Amino acid sequence: MNAVSPKIQNQIAMIQQVQQQLGTVMQQKAQFEMMAKETRKAEEELGGISADSDVYITIGTVMMKQDREKVLVDLADKIETFELRIKSLEKQEKALTTKFEQLQTQIKGALEGAGAPSAN
Fold first, then answer.
1. Whole-prediction pTM value?
2. Are strands 62-66 and 55-59 parallel, antiparallel or unpaired?
3. What is the pLDDT of residues 4-27, one digit of tens each?
4. DSSP per-residue codes, 68-97
5. Which domains does the chain have, with CATH numbers?
6. Under a CB-based contact definition with an 8 Å cutoff, are residues 101 and 27 in contact?
7. Residue-wise burial string across 22-56, b where 16 or more C-beta atoms lie within 10 A, e elsewhere
8. What is the pLDDT of residues 57-92, one digit of tens each?
9. C-beta separation of 78 from 39 below 8 A
């Protein structure tokens, strides 16, 4: 009774792997959401200054003067890229959550069924 079948052991290993993947996807999604939020804030701040104001961007350890409109276009592109990546990660998260729930149900059913006589 204490021995768990190889099938259940395999499912437990799979659910642990899915759980780890889910954690990684959620962490990546949170990072991209934070970067998108910071980029939107920068875009908002640039939108509030006059067109002839000096704008500087940081490249590595160097600050360079850039055209305000070019910076706004670059920020909009970054936001779009971040949002696409977030949507992709949300799809992965949903798929992994579904797989996790299926495996959880299978394991629970197998463990509950292990106590009952087999119908086969």
1. 0.80
2. antiparallel
3. 788 888 999 999 999 999 999 999
4. HHHHHHHHHHHHHHHHHHHHHHHHHHHHHH
5. 6-114 (1.10.287.370)
6. no
7. beebbebbeebeebbeebbebbeeeeeeeeeeebe
8. 999 999 999 999 999 999 999 999 999 999 999 999
9. yes
